[in-house]
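pasting for ref. prot 1 ->
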Amino acid sequence: MTHEQKLRDQFLRAEHSTEADAAPRIEVTEHDGNVRIDVADTAAVRPGPGPGVDGADGPGDAPRSD
């Protein structure tokens, strides 16, 4: 069993789990020895505050330094 198959099996083992639970949530790429990890566009849940929450709408909402 491959690593990906083992992960999928583990995600689907929980009670009431669905195929969506086993969907990839990150994308890993490597270029010139540098590894980049991004949250997949298809991820149902993303890190950080949700839309409409203070700090969620972009660089203009950066923390204040006062």
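and prot 2 ->
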Amino acid sequence: MTPIVKESLIKKGVPLASSIQKQLIKIQGTLTSSIQLRGEEPQEPYYYSFIRLKRQKIDLPVIFKTKENDQLTKPNLKKSDEVELTGHYSNSEKSVRKSFTATSYQLLSEKRIRKKCSGCLDIFTCSPAKNYDYCSKCELNGSRYLNKDSPCSECDGSGLIKFKGQPLRCCKLCYLPKQEKPAPKYLAK
């Protein structure tokens, strides 16, 4: 008896649909349609969209197979989002058009906001999710946020401030009130 050997067809480093193991690859592009749910009875339902890859004119169909707790989840993406998809190319016997099956995704285009630094008063940009109070140069005691629960907004109540690349110094807000001099006796009644 001779053993049966299954070959994997590879074209330019990417295994084709007839291959047993599919190599995961990453592609980047812009979504050109909203995410839609498609449910065909013989197959399990799936989410799909179209992506335009960089330096290409045609849109590539994308099937999203993202699951959470073994449940199909709708990707939190919308039309015109710039994304990086991880998955593999699929060739269907029913269709001539190549498609991409994504197992995970990452949003590349994140909105930015302009803010004024609380330390040096320069303008800097950050994401709305992070919403920093200090720019990266004025990182205060290892943090870019004002501590609103602390008795002192500048030094966190320790009396010392450490800016990145500068020597340790006393806090002006905590240190100055301690330096108040008592009123001279001749002015007191």
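The two ends are 117 Å apart (CA to CA).
The domain at 22-107 is CATH 2.40.50.140 (OB fold (Dihydrolipoamide Acetyltransferase, E2P)).
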